[in-house]
Amino acid sequence: DAGVTQSPTHLIKTRGQHVTLRCSPISGHKSVSWYQQVLGQGPQFIFQYYEKEERGRGNFPDRFSARQFPNYSSELNVNALLLGDSALYLCASSLVRDDYGYTFGSGTRLTVV
Amino acid sequence: SQQGEEDPQALSIQEGENATMNCSYKTSINNLQWYRQNSGRGLVHLILIRSNEREKHSGRLRVTLDTSKKSSSLLITASRAADTASYFCATDAGDYKLSFGAGTTVTVRA
User: What is the 3-state secondary structure (H, E, C) of A90-104?
Assistant: First the structure.
């Protein structure tokens, strides 16, 4: 069974550009979450989607948006990129049970220059 | 801001020794989870302990949870070179997100 897949693996963008990151959850998982991890820090929560509805949003500006599709895959969009958006973006899927952990993808390394 | 804080920030041990790291958090939780991350890639779920549990084992891992002190510990017994990684605790407060600490970097020397 395939794990959580993210694309692309690496990405270099220029300040002011827009980026779209993609995530496919584990089959049967209806919840997808996005996290940002800056070098040397723990992951920070950005969004959680369940059944195509946003259930949670972290403390990120409106430049960050996401959506979930009928097949439960998800996209994270970031507009007007800043140097500070350079980070590892992690996607996680879950069964949404309080006795079940999250399965993370390998992440997308975004560098903004 | 981060909910949890791991201690120590870094740990270096000899192969075969035990490694212990601690996590403190601030708010009430449903469960606490530990993750491992190798070389800045994806996180791997290690173990989940619910708020009504005090101790849990999985292979060479032992996790304790003290909700009165809002703290948890992760013990890795008989460490191996492959255990070299960053370890993160993450709390689930039932608010649709995990709150991570800054992590403990563990180096296992051969």
Answer: EEEEECCCCCCCCEE
Judging contacts by C-beta atoms under 8 Å, the chain B residues touching residue A55 are: 96
**Mean of the pLDDT values across residues B73-83?**
97
CA distance A102 to A94: 5
Measured CA to CA, the distance from residue A82 to residue A104 in angstroms comes to 25
Whether the per-residue pLDDT at A113 is higher than 90: the answer is yes
A52-100 pLDDT per residue, tens: 999 999 999 999 999 999 999 999 999 999 999 999 999 999 987 767 8
CB-nearest to A58 from B45, B90, B97 is B97
Nearest Cα neighbor of B7 from B89, B82, B78 is B89
Q: What sign has the CA pseudo-torsion B66, B67, B70, B73?
A: positive
CB B84 within 8 A of CB B108: yes
Mean pLDDT (whole number) for A29-51 = 95
Contact B43 A104 (CB under 8 A): yes
Evaluate the omega torsion of the peptide bond into residue A8 and state whether it is cis, within 30 degrees of 0: yes
Contacts of B101 in chain A (CB under 8 A): 42
Partners of residue A58 in chain B, C-beta under 8 Å:
97
